[in-house]
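Project channel, design review

CF: Before we commit to the Gadus morhua constructs, I'd like one complete example in the thread so the newer folks can see what an input/output pair looks like. Taking B30.2/SPRY domain-containing protein.
RD: sounds good, go ahead.
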Amino acid sequence: MATISEPDPGLSEEPEDTSLDRRERKRRFAGRAKKKAKSRRRGSRQRVTKVTISEPEPGLSEEPEDTSLDREETRKRRFALWFHITVIVSIGLLCILLISLRFNSPSPWKEGREHLLDELDELTLQGWMLHDKNLYRVSTTKKGWRASREDCQKRKADLVVINSREELAFVSRLMDTSWIGLSDREKEGTHKWVDGTPMTSSWRHVKPRDDGGARDCVVAGEDGWSEEPCKRLHHWICEKVLDLDHLEAERNKEGSVMLTEEEEDAPSITEFHSSTHVLPVGQTARYTCHAGGTPEPTVEWLHNGRPLERDGTDDQSEAWVERGFLFIRGGRYGVNTVCCMASNSAGTEQLIMSGSPSDACDLTLDPNTAHRHLSLSEDNRKVTAVEEVQSYPDHPDRFDYPVVLGREALTGRCYWEVEWRGGVLIGVIYRGITRRGGGGDSRLGENNKSWVLHCDDDRYSAWYNGSRTVLPLRPAGSTRVGVYLDRPAGSLSFYRVSPGGGGSSDTLTHLHTFWSSFTQEDLLPGVLVGWGGSSASLCRV
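CF: and here is what came back for B30.2/SPRY domain-containing protein:
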């Protein structure tokens, strides 16, 4: 029989105790888990409220809901930062671009100015001369007034319109009797310029001479203007008016100076000379001219008032330009008047030189014409003003004014020189001038029968028919004047003879030229001697 023994009292409670311990541990573990869960939920809520100011903690990055909110906010912040940086950089680049365009791109004024300077360079090569913002061109052939104007219009210009004394003086220095843009073709006696404006006389002493007949067109010479038949052949002067209005407007906008800038310098002729002063027939002289300035000036040559083509040679020519030098072949055409003209955008300078002519005349004074306070000496070659009355016999040719005329009449071409002291008038006079009365009819330069140059220590001035022209060139120590009459050409020119011992060491500089249609009446050399001690001597050339 089986016997069931009682469990050992010491071990009977062990299973029960083990079960209780396990349940207690589970209960405690569950309590701690609940506390941790609550703690995590509280931490999660705290992190959600702080997302805008701090990054999520790395230990909680595995929570799906929290990570999504953090990443979205981060993307927004990064996008906003990138957008602002992009805008700022774009604005900066735009400003740099605008500044670059402002300073590097040519302005309308600069573009217009550069275009004008290029045009001026091209026109200068074509024989145009710049003066006071206008361009002038002297013809090399002769035509009637209408054909002359058509030639100017083909060159996008017109016959010259003279608006001031300064412009008249410049045009007169071109040394030619030429058609100008003045006529009374529309209405007899009413002169108008080619631009339709009436002739103004406020700066003119006389109106154009009208000798009658069908004379409607006006030619200009240094002795005045006169009407001639429009079909008569003459040289002419074209004038091109530069269009500067748009540049003026741009200049006002930009505060610039039109056609000149601070760094620009007007031309200055630094070298101007000839290889010889006396030029025998058949031989050749070379003229040199150099000029400085900014921008570099162009140098143009004029011979006897005519512009010469650059580097144009001709075996039959009297003058030509080659490699920048002017060459002149000696011949019987009187004084060689050479003009060197340097031009750039800042201005123009010109110098004139003349060589000795081959038409020298040996002249003496006529005692029968001398005023009684004039003393003749040196074989009637010198006249001096004195206080003592000279014992000259009565003669119908004697002047009541301190004048003496030459004995020999002037025909064809003639060159002579006069040495002077004090104050004198030197020139040519018609034989028929009034000798008595002491009025304007007998005073040299105050009538239409005498053309004279007034010389004193300070200045030169030209006189004809009561009109005086003060010349810019001064004696500068020279007391000798050269006179050249080309009667067939209708010109009378005066030159300053610079001291140099005579002969080829002297230098002739052009002073003034009168232009006139001399009549068949005899022309005589003449001198007026102003006050005591003044004198004039006819030199042997």
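RD: helpful, thanks. The chain has a mean pLDDT of 74.
CF: The longest helix spans residues 64-104.
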